[in-house]
Amino acid sequence: MQDSRFNKDIDTRTGYRTISVMCQPILNFQGDVIGVAQCINKVTGDHQFTDQDQETAEETRPEIEAPEQPPAKF
């Protein structure tokens, strides 16, 4: 399934070929979105991300969340 929001200009300029993309928000402890984790081009099967891939990404997301406060400056 193609998403109309995908900008293929980057692939055209770089010669890279994007087949599939899965994105997950990166949240701080207040629940604010502070970034996005992106997986590109699944290497197995038909190269499409599955519901299981989505669940795995959601389960591992807390491991990459930013700390509640920035580190103190010394």
Automatic annotation (TrEMBL):
Disordered: annotated span: 48-74
InterPro entries on file: GAF (IPR003018), GAF-like_dom_sf (IPR029016)
Domain spans labelled GAF: 3-59
Name of a matching Pfam family: GAF
Highest taxon of the lineage: Eukaryota
Protein name: GAF domain-containing protein
Biological source species: Caerostris extrusa (Bark spider)
Designated gene of the protein: AVEN_214458_1
